[in-house]
Here is the input.
Amino acid sequence: MAYFFMPVFHTEASQGLFLLMFFMIMLGASDLWRMAVSGIVLSCRRTFREGDYLRIGQYEGTVTKLGMFFTRLTSDLGEELTLSNIAVLKSAITNYSRASDGGGFGLETTIIVSYDTPEKKVQEILQLAAHQTIGVSKASSPIVVQVAQSKRYRKFRLTCQATPTKLRTRTILLSDLHANIQDALKEYGVQLQSNYSGSPQSSFSVTDVVRY
Here is the structure.
């Protein structure tokens, strides 16, 4: 404001320079303002808090800092991820900590099997694999539901609760759960299907057969 009252401001060159600097500062600060507003919105919505385990878009980790401009996550592999609050607000957020009663996180995985395997048998296999996974909570029973079907295949989802530790993180628990599911399927003589068609627009590859 003091610049307006200085004698040099009355020259055309200084006025042009002032306008140029003013617009450069405003354009550069626009993203900062947007990130600050996004941080306020995230804090008011209480979508997550520090210590929660989240999936934000393609990233996963534990929230270590919810700042005015950035949100920081620490992955199970020890990687520190810094996301702008604008990107966080625009992304789909899955809060695995809120999905679990009390401490811990929710675990979820899906498999695709043919109609040759009875539904009750599939439920027994998935529940057995969950109970055999170290870290899965014994207080609540695993839930198995059929979420989709086609003329040849059916898709089942297993949901359970777990309490990871520093040595057994959520990534390791999911890996153990998938391994136990595969072992249980072999024990019962059930094979996973590599293709699924619930609708003309949906298809799953081999890597999608067991996922979370």
